[in-house]
Specification:
By secondary structure, the chain is of the alpha/beta class. The chain has eleven helices and 16 strands. The strands form three sheets. Strands 7, 8, 9, 10, 11, 12, 13, 14, 15 and 16 form a ten-stranded parallel β-sheet that branches. A four-stranded antiparallel β-sheet has the order 2-3-1-4, with helices on one face. A two-stranded antiparallel sheet has the order 5-6. Bound molecules: phosphoenolpyruvate (PEP) and manganese (II) ion.
Amino acid sequence: MSADGSPELLIVLGAQATAAETENVVARLQEAGALARVSPGREATVIAVTGDRERLATLPLEGYPGVEQVLPILKPYKLVARELRPDPTVIEVDGRRLGDSWFGLIAGPCTVEYRGQTLETARAVAAAGATMLRGGAFKPRTSPYTFQGLGSEALAILAEARAETGLPIVTELMDPRHVEEVLAVADVIQIGARNMQNFLLLSEIGRADKPVLIKRGPAASVEELLMAAEYVAKEGNERIILCERGIKTFERTTRYTLDLGSVAALKHETHLPVIVDPSHAAGRRDLVLPLALAAAAVGADGIIVEAHPRPEEALCDGPQQIPLGEFAAFAGEVRAIVELLGKQIG
Ligand code: PEP
Ligand code: MN
């Protein structure tokens, strides 16, 4: 395998290994034509090795000072795998943290409809302790006849909302042609469920210097979600948040079926933070709070929820949006369970 392929081996050095020992292992690997990627951690330093498998097999890796274990990688995802990096990744945006003991509360309208609606929502969710503001500018709609979002005009409104509230902006990027203008405003770039396997878009965003929120496709497996994240990480951007937002099943009581088992499984498989979108999963506001609480309990690192000043007038997803008048109570209930779990809203 060439040196720009996926890692073949993980070399684990114990916490007591010295910098000189790590450097020595890296130097031996480089002599063998391999690429070594060092991930220092609290418990261990892990070196991911990419190179020719047969040549690597001739090296006495286990014998090098400081080396505790040499593990061949069997999983198809490498950079996002927890085995590569046991410490959880924490995403920091403008002093807000998401991951490990910080729980993200991302809230805002489904769609930026007009200035007043978005600013009113931003103020209310900020006052209730939200950590980031969501809001769609470019909307992926099932029907081409429904409101498609305000596009660039919405981005300007989101920028104003951030300037006023200080909340970082999470907004969706649908098309590589919009990268520049979305990146100019977004603090976190959302890749929507429908684009989870748009590999060109994922690679493009992998070269961006902004965190990425990838939503699970409604018919995508956990492994496919992790491979989507791998596309982004492979290009160098490892600031990735995964989001479970419900999958398609035979059930019609809820809009999608929230797969909380996937959240628990993802937490085993990856060091990346995993959040839950109870709004799109439920499709009805009476279920958003119980699903949000369940998400926190199962180990999610945050939630992303929709809120609107007057959901009955919303141009998109009205039935699932939390009215602003109820948002503070909603956030209070979420905060209580987050604190019970020994975490804090970041
Ligand atoms: C959204 O969060 O705005 C959205 C459209 O969700 P999803 O991509 O999960 O359907
Ligand atoms: Mn929506």
